[in-house]
Design a protein that fits this description.
- The protein is mainly alpha-helical and 142 residues long.
- It has one domain.
- It contains six helices and no strands.
Amino acid sequence: MVERILNIEQEQIDRRATRKRVEGVLEAVRKYRTIGCLRRENGSISSRNELFKVAEHGAAYPMSSEDHLLGECGEVEQAIYGLDEQEQEIIRERYLKRDKTFDFLLFHELNLSERTYRRIKARAIEKLAYMLRLEVKLQKGD
């Protein structure tokens, strides 16, 4: 692990693809937090009544993957706790709230310049990528 951290600067990372990957995970966590409790409640009701099986409603995730999503939520939370306070605030406000806040509103709300806000946000996403092992390495031809 220490070697991995020391080699971060030397690795060639596709920043755009990495950011999209991290944002995708954060979006999945936000959605699961929003509807996950409701799905669990409805799952217990539908298991008693065959007319309302989750599969018949075209569920996006089979019931067995809910444990996976719950675990992923825990991993993301743990990784967020590893960020600096300001980075945590930006990630939580921008990506994890039920009603997401847009960047241009958030940097004003946090009394940051746009440039400083974007630097902090990029650094937070990069840290999350490494903590969650979501970084995308550049191919040799890139």
